[in-house]
């Protein structure tokens, strides 16, 4: 009994409807990718940012824009290029000849949903500028802090690192993304539907707006109070400890990573109509939330291991909390 | 209130074997009252006082009550009284006389256990009364050597009452059942724990004179009134001589206060009669106190008793006019039973077979005397005849009971001193030596045969009545007297003996003539013939049958406890129950699988059950599902068992694997 104020079942039912509504709206643009959409929505309601990593042309941008469309509110898009400057992202102070004053002109990050396209094509300096906003939720220009709107969701897309012309995101900055997921190619049926002439797939403009930023922000605040029982928290810490003890990893899960996992677990539970978390929530979210935060040793990399494999092993090793008499 | 009633009834049933440790029916109401009073006091205390307070008041009250009840009968302060009461009980006769001092420890135990049980009722578990019942039952089994409940009926009753009061929670009756079953099986065993072995009966080394030589003196003053008695027509026993050195007979030298000595070394017969006789001492002197049968109680406080024979000794000596009563137990065997009875062997009776340096001629004479007898009883009757024939009682005959005197008595040349002539001493001791030579456990008793009742209601015993007779121990029937002097005043009826003698005579003539020929060249048989060892019913089959059953019972009980624990745990427990089921059916899920994943591979209601279990375990409200989870669990169980053959399923309830899981 950690939280004194708890989220009631009625509230959860309302959220579930909202979640389904947003999901359905996004799905009109991105068919057959409901699990990915759900993950992005988890991040949205958990107040974190999403990193979509996949090859070009799988619908990353479509997904991000569809989410923005369904959410209503303001959405902006930043196409990262090697010559993009930090001020192009955050905004800059300009001299207003009419008033004769220095005025702050907000950059594209001042939006509810920011689509940071191909973030790993920008230089490290520009990446850092974005990542700072993601963490602090304010932009400081000329000593003045400017708050970004709430909710603030950055959906960054990145091409796989081994493609040409990319800059690898530093680990510390990767840690700021709440979760990372791939989209993957659509299944053949869905792909057929997408290819059929006259299909609405990919038409982001037709995504209905089903909610408002204020409603999402409110839900997000309420869901932070959702009950997570001690055995679940212990399970999460056990999993974190297991990643730190794994000798294939140079860097295990950070406490920030585990906190993010708890937040995501709360939203995931609510999205499934529960006002409490269960071990399955943890298991579903472990890889998306933690995989990008772990760093393999060089030997493990050479052996062809991936952080996803390591996490799968960790899940196998750590005993799940079974329902038991309290 | 209902709980108190149930607890009281449970304890009352469990105290039945304990109450059988005292003779008569006094112990039953006393224990029942102790139980009722204890429960009433605890109930009256209500919830105003804590359990510790109630205990710290009532337990000392019980102990002091015991002290005040018994303080007159046991010397010393409260501590000594309480401390000595249990050894006194353990060294008392079995069953113990229901006197206040002997009944006190039982009543205090019952009261204290009942108080503990009643106080434990304040908890939710209801474990106290069944455990207290087990304690009382075990105490009863220990006190009575497991004889009080030979068929386990009381144990069944205790379990039944426990179950009746507590059908919903299966835990305690299961533990109780296992424990009572263990107690019932183990305690009556051949080598069962016997608390009496822990206490030494208080015995004193008393210098007693051998009364055998006195026979001649009494015979010399035939009209002197030794004592008179009022009571049934029974032989009066003065002394019992069990040890023979080859030269003389000796009485036991160890005596203890009546009621505080060990049980006799050979158990009394199955068919006994109790008799109470009032004695008034006349000219009889010495320290031997006349009594009847094996003494149970006497009105003389400082009389000492020989535990094995029941013979009484008054260390301060007898005085004319001494008046007292003796209650004794007399063996009353039937002729048919005796005819078939065997005699015991082994170390227990070695004392009654001892014949140090037995002369060959006596051994040979005894062997030939009984060679046509088939049973120990026939041997005993034949020897009676062998000793009696051709020999005459003579008060003037030389005294003595050495081998030499017996040889002279039996084989002496006619006309020589003491040949064929003797007092009862020679008849009895000669019989005893011959009987021991053929393996009959024998002792010699000095006493007085039954005398007719006078007009004033008293039977007057005079010097001429003094006599001695041998007694032979038969398995299950106790010490049976024989009369080699006249052949009449003995245990078996005259008709039965005549029948035996007729049969023996039809086979061969009794060797009533002494062997005057040289001893045969062949070596005579061993002087002491090992008596045939009666086949004692072996407990091994029972033990062998019980040993494999015990682990099964234990596993059943442990699984039952686990099940009832799970049952109390609601939905989570129901899910664990399903997991146990998977374990015993060899489908144990991997530890990483959460409940819904496990359930997805199970029959229909399992996912719903997993959902309820998760909700019970991880939701802030806890378990609110009520009875549904267990209904689902039973459905899952049925579905899972359906595909498993019965010969696999029978092992499920005792499979220990679920016990390893948390």
TrEMBL record, chain A:
Gene Ontology MF, one: ATP binding
Domain ChlI/MoxR AAA lid: 242-313
Domain ATPase AAA-3: 49-179
Pfam families: AAA_3, AAA_lid_2
InterPro entries assigned: ATPase_AAA-3, CbbQ/NirQ/NorQ/GpvN, ChlI/MoxR_AAA_lid, P-loop_NTPase
Signal peptide: none
PANTHER family (alphabetical): METHANOL DEHYDROGENASE REGULATOR (PTHR42759:SF5), MOXR FAMILY PROTEIN (PTHR42759)
The protein's name in its UniProt record: ATPase
Organism lineage string: Bacteria, Bacillati, Actinomycetota, Actinomycetes, Pseudonocardiales
């Amino acid at each position: 009994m950690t939280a004194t104020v708890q989220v009631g079942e009625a509230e959860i039912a309302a959220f579930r409807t909202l979640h389904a509504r947003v999901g359905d709206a996004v799905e009109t643009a991105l068919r057959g990718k409901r699990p990915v959409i759900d993950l992005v929505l988890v991040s949205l309601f958990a107040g974190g940012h999403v990193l979509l990593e996949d090859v070009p042309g799988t619908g990353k941008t479509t997904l991000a824009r569809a989410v923005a469309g369904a959410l209503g509110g303001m959405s902006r898009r930043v196409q990262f290029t090697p010559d993009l400057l930090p001020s192009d992202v955050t905004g800059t102070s300009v001299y207003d000849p009419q008033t004769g004053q220095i005025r702050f002109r907000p950059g594209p990050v001042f939006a509810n949903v920011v689509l940071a396209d191909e973030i790993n094509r920008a230089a490290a300096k520009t990446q850092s500028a974005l990542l700072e906003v993601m963490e602090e939720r304010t932009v400081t220009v000329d000593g003045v802090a400017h708050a970004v709107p709430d909710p603030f969701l950055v959906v960054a897309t990145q091409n796989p690192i081994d493609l040409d012309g990319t800059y690898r995101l530093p680990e510390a900055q990767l840690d700021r993304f709440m979760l990372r997921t791939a989209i993957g190619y659509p299944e053949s049926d869905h792909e057929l539907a997408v290819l059929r002439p006259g299909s609405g797939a990919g038409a982001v403009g037709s995504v209905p707006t089903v909610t408002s930023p204020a409603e999402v922000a409110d839900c997000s605040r309420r869901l932070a109070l959702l009950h997570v029982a001690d055995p679940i928290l212990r399970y999460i810490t056990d999993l974190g400890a297991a990643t730190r003890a794994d000798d294939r990893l140079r860097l295990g899960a950070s406490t920030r990573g585990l906190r993010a996992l708890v937040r995501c677990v709360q939203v995931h539970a609510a999205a499934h109509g529960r006002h409490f978390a269960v071990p399955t929530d943890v298991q579903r979210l472990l890889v998306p939330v933690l995989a990008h935060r772990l760093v393999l040793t060089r030997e493990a990399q050479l052996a062809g291991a991936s952080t996803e494999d390591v996490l799968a092993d960790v899940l196998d090793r750590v005993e799940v909390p079974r329902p038991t008499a309290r | 209130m209902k709980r108190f009633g149930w607890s009281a009834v449970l304890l009352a049933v469990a105290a039945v074997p304990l109450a059988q440790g005292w003779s008569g029916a006094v112990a039953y109401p006393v224990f029942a009252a102790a139980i009722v009073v204890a429960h009433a006091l605890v109930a009256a205390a209500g919830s105003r006082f804590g359990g510790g307070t109630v205990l710290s008041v009532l337990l000392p009250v019980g102990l002091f009550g015991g002290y005040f009840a018994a303080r007159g009968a046991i010397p010393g302060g409260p501590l000594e009284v309480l401390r000595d009461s249990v050894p006194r009980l353990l060294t008392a006769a079995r069953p113990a006389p229901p006197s206040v001092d002997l009944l006190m420890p039982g009543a205090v135990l019952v009261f204290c256990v009942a108080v503990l049980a009643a106080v434990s009722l304040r908890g939710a578990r209801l474990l106290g009364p069944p455990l207290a019942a087990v304690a009382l039952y075990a105490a009863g089994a220990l006190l009575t050597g497991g004889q009080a409940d030979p068929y386990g009926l009381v144990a069944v009753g205790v379990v039944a009452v426990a179950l009746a009061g507590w059908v919903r929670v299966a835990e305690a009756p299961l533990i109780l059942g296992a424990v009572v079953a263990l107690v019932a099986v183990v305690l009556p065993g051949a080598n069962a724990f016997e608390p009496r072995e822990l206490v030494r009966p208080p015995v004193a080394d008393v210098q007693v004179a051998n009364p055998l030589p006195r026979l001649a003196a009494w015979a010399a003053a035939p009209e002197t009134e030794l004592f008179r008695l009022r009571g049934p027509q029974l032989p009066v026993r003065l002394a019992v001589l069990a040890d023979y050195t080859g030269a003389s007979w000796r009485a036991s030298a160890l005596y203890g206060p009546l009621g505080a000595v060990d049980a006799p070394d050979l158990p009394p017969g199955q068919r006994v009669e109790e008799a109470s006789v009032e004695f008034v001492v006349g000219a009889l002197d010495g320290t031997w106190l006349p009594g009847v049968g094996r003494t149970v109680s006497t009105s003389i406080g400082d009389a000492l008793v020989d535990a094995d024979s029941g013979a009484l000794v008054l260390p301060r000596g007898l005085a004319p006019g001494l008046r007292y009563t003796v209650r004794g137990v007399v063996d009353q065997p039937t002729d048919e039973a005796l005819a078939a009875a065997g005699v015991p062997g082994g170390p227990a009776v070695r004392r009654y077979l001892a014949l140090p340096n037995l002369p060959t001629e006596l051994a040979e004479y005894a062997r030939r005397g009984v060679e046509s007898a088939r049973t120990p009883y026939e041997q005993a009757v034949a020897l009676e005849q062998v000793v009696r024939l051709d020999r005459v009682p003579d008060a003037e005959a030389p005294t003595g009971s050495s081998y030499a005197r017996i040889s002279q008595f039996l084989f002496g040349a006619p006309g020589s001193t003491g040949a064929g002539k003797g007092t009862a001493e020679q008849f009895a001791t000669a019989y005893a030596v011959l009987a021991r030579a053929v393996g009959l456990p024998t002792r010699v008793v000095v006493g007085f045969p039954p005398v007719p009742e006078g007009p004033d209601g008293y039977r007057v015993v005079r010097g001429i009545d003094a006599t001695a007779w041998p007694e032979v121990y038969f398995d299950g029937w106790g010490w049976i007297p024989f009369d080699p002097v006249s052949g009449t005043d003995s245990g078996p009826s005259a008709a039965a003996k005549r029948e035996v003698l007729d049969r023996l005579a039809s086979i061969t003539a009794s060797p009533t003539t002494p062997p005057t020929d040289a001893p045969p060249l062949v070596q005579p048989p061993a002087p002491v013939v090992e008596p045939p060892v009666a086949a004692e019913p072996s407990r091994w089959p029972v033990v062998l049958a019980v040993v494999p059953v015990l682990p099964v019972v234990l596993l059943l009980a442990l699984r039952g406890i686990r099940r009832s624990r799970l049952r109390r745990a609601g939905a989570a427990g129901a899910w664990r129950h399903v997991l146990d089921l998977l374990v015993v059916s060899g489908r144990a899920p991997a530890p990483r699988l959460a409940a819904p994943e496990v359930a997805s591979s199970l029959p229909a209601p399992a996912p719903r059950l997993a959902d309820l279990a998760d909700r019970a375990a991880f939701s802030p409200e806890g378990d609110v599902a009520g009875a549904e989870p267990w209904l689902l669990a039973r459905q899952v169980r049925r579905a899972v068992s359906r595909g498993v053959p019965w010969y696999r399923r029978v092992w499920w309830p005792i499979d220990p694997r679920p016990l390893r899981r948390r």
